[in-house]
Write a structure and sequence with these properties.
Length: 287
């Protein structure tokens, strides 16, 4: 009798070897799912790659804005030279700055003389600025203290187009010539405690003032440099009996120096305002 070894899936029935049916064989299917994006994980292991989600807002971006302040209308008056005797030709400059369109200027020199300018018809909506520099020249026939005044009118910018006004002023002291106000350049204060001497053309170019109580002496040259002496050793000098008095509020001088008399003392300067003030209280430097 032949012996047949049994093998998996094979059986022997009545001496006949037959294949076992597959009905009892389980089939295992391994499905590997790979991500549609990115690289597969090594050896088929590891988490599937993820994709970050981006959210886009449909709202418009926020913007910030700053508004620059609008400078106010302004005007400044200046005079050159800033001192002089009667007959000197002075030049006044008026610097105007600000929004709007310059409409008109009305100038008064302080001695009754006037001047000015008118821009003519100006319509609302003009966008020109009022920035402008005006110049006026004038000579004063008499010494004195004068106030130059310029009344300025500007048509404001749209939409309001309101009229705006401003005024520029400057005070000018016009001196009396030495020939009419002094004795060969010498003069006294109303208290007669101060005596001054301004050199005449061809002499020593200096101004010299002294107080007798207390004894003080100050001398200034044409550049504004000054020297001061105090005490009985100072050479104060003796003014002549006929030396004229320079009234308070009035001035005298030449092309270099100007001395203004006031109750606070005698103030002597060169062009530009550099100088000194002398009084019973002492000598004060002005710069």
């Amino acid at each position: 009798m032949r012996t047949v070894r049994s093998r998996p899936n094979w059986v022997q029935t009545d001496g006949v070897v037959q294949r076992r049916p597959f009905s009892s064989v389980a089939v295992v299917v391994l499905v590997v799912v790979m991500a549609s994006c990115g690289s597969p994980s090594r050896n088929g292991a590891g988490p599937a790659p993820t994709t970050a989600r981006t959210t886009t807002s449909s709202a418009p971006p926020r913007t910030t804005s700053t508004t620059s302040p609008v400078a106010a209308l302004s005007a400044t008056a200046m005079v050159s030279p800033d001192q002089g005797v009667a007959g000197t030709l002075f030049t006044f400059s008026v610097v105007i700055r600000g929004p709007g369109t310059l409409n008109s200027e009305a100038v008064q020199f302080g001695d009754g003389a006037t001047s000015g300018a008118n821009a003519g018809q100006i319509a609302c909506g003009d966008t020109a600025r009022a920035d402008h520099t005006s110049t006026y020249t004038h000579a004063y026939e008499q010494p004195g203290t004068y106030t130059f005044r310029d009344d300025i009118s500007v048509l404001g910018p749209p939409p309001s187009c309101n009229h705006k006004e401003t005024t520029a002023t400057v005070v000018l002291v016009v001196a009396a010539p030495l020939a009419t106000a002094t004795l060969n350049g010498a003069f006294l204060s109303p208290s007669k405690n101060i005596a001054c001497l301004i050199s005449s053309p061809g002499g020593v170019d200096a101004v010299r003032c002294a107080t007798f109580a207390p004894p003080l002496l100050v001398t200034m040259g044409p550049t504004g440099t000054s020297q001061t002496c105090a005490g009985p050793q100072c050479d104060l000098g003796n003014p002549a009996a006929e030396t004229p008095v320079l009234p308070y509020g009035s001035a005298t001088g030449d092309a270099t120096f100007q001395c203004l008399s006031s109750s606070a003392g005698m103030t002597c300067t060169i062009v530009g305002g550099v100088g000194f003030r002398i009084s019973r209280a002492g000598v004060t430097r002005i710069s």
